[in-house]
Design brief:
With 226 residues, the chain is an alpha/beta fold. It has one domain: Spore Coat Polysaccharide Biosynthesis Protein SpsA, Chain A, CATH 3.90.550. It is built from eight helices and eight strands. The protein has an eight-stranded mixed sheet with strand order 1-8-6-7-5-2-3-4, sandwiched between helices. The longest helix is centred in the middle third of the chain and has 13 residues. The protein is globular, with a radius of gyration of 16 Å. The two termini are 26 Å apart.
C-alpha cells in the first residue's frame, strides 16, 4: 500500500507524458437514503456536490472531466461548470453499473488512456488525493489499476487503464460492480482517509452543507448510477 502523500510527489509524471486521463464523477443516483439526489447537495459556499467533485478531479490532474446525470438531470446539469462534460444515463434506475458503462463509453470516445472514477458523495477527498491515485498508476497508464482505500477498506477514486476496460464493462453490465476487478493482485492501493467516508444520510452531512428543496424524484430499486 502507498501513502497518498508519497504518491502525490510523483504526480507530475502524468503531465510530462501528456497522458490523457478522463475523470468522471458518478452522480446519476436518486439519493434514496438522503431524500434528495446527492449531486444537488451544496457546500457552505453554495457549490453543488457534483460541481465540487468535478473541480476536485480537474485540479487533481484529470482532463477532460465529466459528470454522469440521471435523477434530477436538468437540475444537476444547471449547476455544473461549462467545461465539464455531461453524460446522460437514461437507465440510471438499473443501478450504479449504468454510470460506469457511460463513463467507459465516453473514455473510448475521447481517446483517453485511463479513466478515473469518483463517487459524488465523498466530500473529504481532495485534489491531492486524486494526484496520489494518478501518480500510483503513472508508470504504465494504459495498464493502471489503482484504488484509494483506508486501513484495508476499498474506496474511491478508482483508476482503470484502457487495457482493463473490457473487463470493467463486463463487470459493470453484470451488476457486480468493479469489486472483482479491483481484487486483481496487480491492483495498487493508495491510502486516502476520505476514500471510505461516503455520505448516505442527512445525519452524516458535513457542517454547513445545504440541502436543496425537497422534491419527489422518480426512484428505481436502487440509488442507481452513482
Amino acid at each position: 500500500m502507498i501513502s497518498g502523500t508519497a504518491a502525490a510527489t510523483s504526480a507530475g509524471v502524468w503531465w510530462d507524458r501528456h497522458v490523457q486521463v478522463l475523470g468522471v464523477v458518478l452522480a446519476a443516483g436518486a439519493g434514496t437514503r438522503m431524500g434528495v439526489p446527492k449531486a444537488l447537495l451544496r457546500t457552505a459556499e453554495g457549490t453543488s456536490w457534483a460541481a465540487r467533485a468535478a473541480q476536485v478531479l480537474h485540479a487533481g490532474g484529470c482532463a477532460p472531466v465529466a459528470v454522469t446525470v440521471g435523477a434530477a438531470a436538468g437540475e444537476v446539469r444547471a449547476g455544473l461548470p461549462a467545461h465539464v462534460d455531461v453524460l446522460e444515463v437514461p437507465d440510471w434506475r438499473r443501478g450504479p453499473g449504468t454510470g460506469v458503462l457511460a463513463a467507459l463509453r465516453h473514455a473510448r470516445s475521447v481517446g483517453a488512456q485511463a479513466l478515473l472514477l469518483m463517487l459524488v458523495d465523498l466530500p473529504d477527498v481532495g485534489a491531492d488525493d486524486v494526484r496520489a491515485v494518478l501518480a500510483a498508476g503513472a508508470e504504465q497508464p494504459g495498464a493502471a489499476l489503482v484504488r484509494a482505500g483506508w486501513r484495508g477498506r476499498g474506496g474511491h477514486p478508482v483508476l482503470v487503464g484502457c487495457r482493463h476496460w473490457a473487463r470493467a464493462a463486463g463487470a459493470a453490465a453484470s451488476g457486480a460492480g468493479l469489486r472483482e476487478l479491483l481484487r486483481d493482485p496487480d491492483c495498487r492501493e493508495v491510502e486516502v482517509a476520505g476514500a471510505v467516508r461516503d455520505v448516505d444520510a442527512p445525519h452524516a452531512l458535513p457542517p454547513g452543507t445545504r440541502l436543496p428543496q425537497r422534491r419527489e424524484v422518480a426512484r428505481g430499486a436502487t440509488d442507481g448510477g452513482g
